[in-house]
């Protein structure tokens, strides 16, 4: 029988520069999740500081990153729960330029408090990804608003960003035959419209679509706890054989930007 994994997706509202208050609220959600049997809790990107890089307090607050990483490690061990604390912006004084000193890092903390993985966000559009220790599961923490879509796109469709997120997450689940854990920030109660956090935190699976009834259609702060049935992923792989194809010796993916010539993409002559 395939295992089940219970995951808490925490759609936190990160108050700008209120690091201690944001941590305390996140810890409260995690304690609640653990009391309901969750094995993994996932938070949004920039959940401690929000994203206000031009505020003079921002670098100083980012200098305390290790204090809060250690707090999450202690909390994970105390509650016996795995934690992905969104992303934490780290200040590294030894670097040269300020852009190099600030590192946006995602951690996977095991239920014994050990760090099982670390990822620095680089060369990604919108989403920072951290590989989970729970098999065919991918976790994405973001800080996304409706303003992430252009003025043109919103004039064409006021819900264009929602459409993008829903479509992209469903596609990722199918094309990788995996569960995608997507956790975005939520706004304070009553906040709606352009510039507010898009929310929509969910877990997306092949065949099933989006799960997380408390947050998947909401822009406000909240938490969903979702039971992931790994049998669904096994059956999706049997049907679509995506990972099986990628494991084949003759699997290749030759697209490169430098393969393009003035006349178009260079061809190897093979289909």
Task: Kindly list the characteristics that best describe this protein.
five-stranded mixed β-sheet; 271 residues; 14 strands; alpha+beta; disordered C terminus; single chain; four-stranded mixed β-sheet
Strand tally: 14
Report the sheet with the most strands, covering strand number, pairing sense and barrel closure: 5 strands, mixed
Mean pLDDT over the full residue set: 84
What is the alpha-carbon Rg in Å? 20 Å
Contiguous uncertain segments of 5+ residues: 124-135, 263-271
Note the beta-strand portion.
Answer: 15-25%
Structural class: alpha+beta
> Which strand order does the major sheet show?
7-8-9-10-11
**Tally of DSSP helical segments:** 8
Helix content: 25-40%
Task: Give the termini distance in whole angstroms.
Answer: 39 Å
Secondary-structure element order, as H and E? EHEHHEEHEEEEHHEEEEHHEE
Shape: globular
């Amino acid at each position: 029988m395939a295992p089940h994994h219970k995951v808490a997706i925490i759609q936190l509202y990160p108050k700008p520069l209120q690091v201690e208050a944001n941590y305390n609220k996140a810890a409260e959600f995690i304690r609640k999740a653990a009391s309901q049997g969750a094995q993994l809790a996932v938070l949004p990107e920039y959940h401690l500081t929000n994203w206000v890089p031009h505020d003079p307090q921002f670098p100083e607050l980012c200098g305390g990153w290790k204090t809060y990483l250690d707090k999450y490690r202690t909390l994970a061990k105390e509650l016996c729960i795995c934690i992905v604390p969104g992303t934490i912006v780290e200040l590294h004084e030894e670097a040269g330029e300020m852009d190099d000193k600030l590192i946006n890092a995602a951690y996977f903390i095991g239920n014994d408090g050990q760090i099982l993985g670390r990822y620095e966000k680089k060369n990604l559009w919108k989403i920072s990804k951290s590989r989970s220790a729970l098999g065919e599961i991918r976790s994405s923490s973001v800080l996304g608003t409706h303003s992430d879509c252009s003025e043109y796109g919103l004039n064409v469709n006021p819900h264009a960003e929602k459409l993008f997120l829903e479509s992209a997450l469903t596609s990722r689940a199918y094309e990788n035959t995996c569960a995608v854990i997507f956790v975005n920030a939520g706004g304070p109660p009553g906040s709606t419209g352009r510039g507010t956090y898009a929310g929509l935190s969910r877990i997306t699976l092949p065949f099933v679509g989006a799960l997380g009834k408390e947050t998947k259609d909401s822009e406000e702060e909240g938490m969903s706890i979702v039971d992931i049935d790994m049998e669904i992923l096994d059956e999706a792989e049997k049907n679509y054989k995506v990972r099986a194809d990628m494991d084949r010796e003759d699997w290749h993916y030759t697209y490169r930007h430098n393969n393009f010539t003035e006349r178009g993409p260079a061809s190897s002559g093979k289909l």
